[in-house]
Design goal:
Blueprint lengths: L9 H12 L3 H8 L9 H15 L6 E7 L11 E9 L2 E11 L7 H16 L5 H10 L3 H17 L2
Parallel strand pairs: 1-3
Antiparallel strand pairs: 2-3
Helix pairs in contact: 4-5, 4-6
Bound molecules: zinc ion (ZN).
The site of zinc ion has 5 residues, from helix 4.
Length: 162
């Protein structure tokens, strides 16, 4: 049932289930995150991702592209997809970082989009979900952990509306 919350402690899952059962999850999210972001195109996504990267991860290789993908599933791909392409250009080996996130994140509050971008950008420096990875996430987005949980609650709520 709570497929998006599987990695969380039981107490959190129980609270979430309680909000769902009492039909209060939507209201909880709406009150906490009333805004909607305007980032709809791949171009706008790239601009936002690039700004974050320049501000917080100056030393990582440049961001080559960013796009929304309707085929990506937030469950299967956790929160998005990050690809690394090593391209041989002349004698130099160049790393290109590109970033793809599930198209459903066109909807939703701006905070969830920054959390997802922080997650994907952090993967440029750390591939695994380890301590250093989450430190990077929090460096880019200080409220990272709360926002990841709330994004997962939002995904749960979306599914319950189908
Ligand atoms: Zn990840």
């Amino acid at each position: 049932m709570l497929k998006y919350l599987q990695g969380y402690p039981e107490s959190i899952q129980v609270q979430a289930q309680d909000l769902i059962d009492n039909d209060k999850l939507g209201l909880y999210l709406e009150r906490k995150y009333p805004e909607r972001h305007q980032v709809q195109s791949d171009k706008a996504l790239y601009q936002l991702a690039r700004e974050l990267k320049e501000q917080y991860m100056r030393n990582a290789p440049p961001l080559a592209s960013a796009r929304f993908d309707a085929k990506l599933s937030p469950v299967k791909h956790t929160l998005g997809l990050h690809t690394y392409q090593a391209q041989v250009q002349g004698s130099k080996l160049k790393t290109r970082n590109s970033l793809t996130i599930a198209a459903l994140f066109r909807e939703g509050p701006p905070q969830f989009l920054s959390m997802i971008l922080a997650h994907e950008l952090a993967h440029f420096q750390e591939k695994d979900h380890n301590k250093r990875f989450y430190q990077l996430c929090c460096h880019i987005e200080p409220a990272y952990h709360q926002l990841e949980l709330d994004t997962r609650l939002w995904l749960t709520w979306r599914d319950s509306q189908k």
